[in-house]
Amino acid sequence: MTASIDAAEVRRRTSELLAAHPPATTDRTQFLKARFDAGLAWVHYPAGLGGLDAPRSLQPVIDAELAAAGAPDNDPRRIGIGLGMAAPTILGFGTDEQKQRFLRPLWVGEEVWCQLFSEPGAGSDLAALGTRAVRDGEDWVVDGQKVWTSSAHVARWAILIARTDPDLPKHRGISYFICDMTDPGVEVRPLRQITGEAEFNEVFLTGVRIPDSRRLGPVGEGWKVAQTTLMNERVSIGGARIPREGGMIGPVTRTWRERPELRTHDLHQRLLTLWVEAEVARLTGERLRQQLVAGHPGPEGSGMKLAFARLNQEISGLEVELLGDGGLLYGDWTMRRPELVDFTGRDAGYRYLRSKGNSIEGGTSEVLLNIVAERVLGLPVEPRNDKDVAWKDLSR
Questions:
Q1: Which residues contact 167 (CB under 8 A, 6 or more apart)?
Q2: Residue 395 class from Cβ within 10 Å (0-12 exposed, 13-18 middle, 19+ buried)?
Q3: For position 241, what pLDDT does the model report?
Q4: 3 state SS of 342
Q5: In contact, 197 and 336? CB cutoff 8 Å
Q6: Phi, psi of 291 (to 5 degrees)
Q7: What integer best gives the mean pLDDT of the chain?
Q8: What's the pLDDT tens digit per position in 343-382?
Q9: Among 210, 215, 161, which residue's Cα sits nearest to residue 185?
Q10: β-bridge mates for residue 115, sequence order
Q11: Distance, CA of 26 to chain centre
């Protein structure tokens, strides 16, 4: 970290940015590019890559100054996979050329990213994936199917894991790539969900050629690279910074205050309990982000993701009960393909249905319980009979 960078210094640099590029008269994209180039995008990143190699704790100082000046943000919900998963993985394992090529348009939002990890036969047991990547000269030829892919229909790039050596056990012989979603052989099909919309997709890869220059990390060590992605994913899903009464608890508390005729003693007790739990989760997320200042995300993010899923489902269920007959209404079943994931948007019926996926996406709750048990609490590791068996010899 750069010791000379403090709050006063980032305020000075922010003032210089605003003076040179007034938000009221500067094109939004140009302003965001200038912010990136000034090192004020993600301040803890290295200089030249959108940061100042400064403490992560200074980022809220920059964000507050820019918000007060009416500066645009980079619409983080729309590009959440790029910001929360692709970027830290590229930073940790990418070449200098890859960092220079991908990080700026990713942060600015010019290029949307998606994640090609889960498969029809490899969801909770992700390391069992069967998508193959075969070396052909300077390229890898990829064939397989991925599923539950958010934003694939609007993404330019994807982070992809594929099996490059079936003779090794399933956690080995996997490599990690950056896939161009516009390349021949990439087919994206919508998956209509219980909400009526198709926020997820299935992706078919047929003879897709990926240059070896778009590989992240060494050949065969993709599982290690993927762990960085997955740990960051769980922090980004379960540990997002929100204000008090933000997230799913917000609509319920507003309804409680505005419609006293709906209140009962039982609902009151349940709301109080969930409000306290939501606040505890919010503050725990703040502490987790402070721990990130000194290093990388650890398995604690799995605990946050667990709490996020359970609370969302319980709170949305309470909201539907609180609304009585009105909770049975559903505003719109129109099939659409949204550009961003909105866990708390629309009406109570949407929130109730959408929250059902929270315990599946980003790691199922069952898998995360194992991670917390083994890597946080230090409990005995669950027996695994396939640990040393070659992937090609596994029963499927």
A1: 173, 390, 391, 392
A2: exposed
A3: 72
A4: coil
A5: yes
A6: -65, -30
A7: 91
A8: 787 899 999 999 999 998 878 898 889 888 888 889 998 8
A9: 210
A10: 159
A11: 30
* CA-based torsion, 174, 179, 184, 185: positive or negative: positive
Strand partners for 122? 119
Q: How far is CA 290 from CA 247, 283, 293, in A?
A: 20, 11, 5
- pLDDT, one tens digit per residue, over 217-270 is 999 999 999 999 988 776 666 556 788 998 999 999 999 999 999 999 999 999
Q: Model's pTM, two decimal places? A: 0.89
* Residues with catalytic roles: 233
What is the per-residue DSSP string for 162-205? Answer: EES-TTSBTTSSEEEEEEETTSTTEEEEEE--TTSS--EEEEEE
- CA distances, 396 to each of 8, 42, 203 (Å): 59, 43, 21
CA distance 291 to 262: 41
Taking only the tens place, the pLDDT of each residue in 257-308 is 999 999 999 999 999 999 999 999 988 888 777 666 555 556 667 788 889 9
Instruction: Categorize the per-residue pLDDT at 8 as very low, low, confident or very high, splitting at 50, 70 and 90.
Output: very high
Name every residue whose Cβ is closer than 8 Å to that of residue 275 and which is 6 or more positions away in sequence: 245, 249, 253
Specify the residue for token string 């040393």.
388
